[in-house]
Amino acid sequence: MGRKPTSVTVVLGGDTLVITMHGLLSAAEKALAASPAGAAQLQEFHHQLFKLSSDPLRKEIKRITGLEICEVAKDKATAAVQVFSGGTVVQVFLLVGSLPADSWEEK
Q1: Which residues pair with 90 in a beta bridge?
Q2: Antiparallel, parallel or unpaired: β 16-22 and 89-94
Q3: Rounded distance, CA 94 to CA 107, Å?
Q4: Is 21 left (phi over 0), alpha (psi -120 to 50) or beta?
Q5: DSSP SS3 for 71
Q6: Helix, strand, coil % over all residues of the chain, rounded to 5
Q7: Residue 90: which of 81, 77, 102, 101 has the closest Cα?
């Protein structure tokens, strides 16, 4: 959507990858999220957006980790997206396998 988050946190634990993007929602989206109906609409919008545009992210996860994202059915990744009214979006992926803790090094 052309907006960059103010910060991103990535956590890998076992076979679960969590990407948290802070400050991602526009002012209009934050206002929409203030009501339960608007929050549900925003959640569905971001879920659909994620489904349609996650392929480059899936490829980058595979490139970095060497692991695929689990598939539950053809073209449906085992992933979840949660949108919070303060502007934070969280994406959770279940990976095929896990990386040993010593495979990551600080750079």
Answers
A1: 20, 82
A2: antiparallel
A3: 25
A4: beta
A5: strand
A6: 35, 30, 35
A7: 81
What predicted TM-score, i.e. pTM, was given to this entire model?
A: 0.77
| Lookup: tokens for 74 | 């053809």
Tell the residue number behind the tokens 């502007």, with chain if given: 87
The residue ranges of DSSP E strands in the chain, in sequence order, are 7-13, 16-22, 71-73, 76-77, 79-83, 89-94
Per-residue pLDDT tens for 29-63? 888 888 999 988 988 888 888 888 778 888 998 89
The answer to whether 17 touches 11, Cβ cutoff 8 Å, is: yes
Backbone φ and ψ for 21, nearest 5 degrees, come out as -115, 120
The Cα–Cα gap between 93 and 107 comes to 24
Give, in order, the Cα–Cα distances in Å from 94 to each of 33, 85, 106: 27, 25, 23
Mean pLDDT of 75-100: 77
**Residues counted in the chain:** 107
Q: What are the structure tokens assigned to 96, written together?
A: 């095929």
